[in-house]
Amino acid sequence: MSHLRVRPHAPDANGQVLEVTPQSAGWTHVGFAVVKLSPGQSYTGLETTRESCLVLVAGTADIRAGDEMFAAVGGRSSPFEDLAPGAVFVSAATDYAVTAVTEVELAVCTAPGAPGYAPRQIPAAEMGREVRGQGSNTRYVRNILPQDRPAHSLLVVEVVTPAGHWSSYPPHKHDTAEEGAETALEETYYHRLDPPQGFAFQRVYTDDRSLDEAVLVEDGDVVMVPRGYHPVGAPHGYNLYYLNVMAGPERRWIFRNDPAHEWIVTG
Which of 60, 73, 140, 222 to pair with 3, CA 20 to 30 A apart? Predict the structure, then answer.
């Protein structure tokens, strides 16, 4: 099995089914976890030096962040429903509690934080929705926490790729800090499939091929992208959702396409 692939497991006592930490990933910035909660069940957290974005991939929950209370956050039944997710930004050194109202699939996205940011609910109207690509490269993007919204280092976005389409394509990378041309960002991909028995593929590779892996993706998997290009393909019959978390020294998403495939967008 690829060392970039992280598989879910049965829920632990806190409901957690998957976790990636900077230590387990061997990098510096991005942390990610998935929690499954039943109605009435709560999940709590406190990151003293890290900020968090709590994303309700599915379900409804009441969320407390410090002294702020956000009721009935979320509401969609599935990440494939054409609705924005519920999301709450939690600043560093702020404790939080997520209490499920319905069955909940919670993504806990973290990265280094800093003072000066207040906890807040991210309204659906702020999550810009866009269509990228054309033909079999079409995919649907929702920017949950983009670079023009307050945060210290977190970037969070979700994408739905229709069956038979490609995504994160042409292959692009963001692993080098080059002013105005590319930023260095670690990234996780949390994958869901519809129907769930499906599969997809993600390739992660560098120019020199010192890293070159084709990763089989099943429902609930995470793929870690420490560096390199990272395109995704969804087979016929299976729609693909993924939630991206990115962070690095600079909070800007500037990517570079693989020169061999640049012609796909330049003509």
Answer: 140
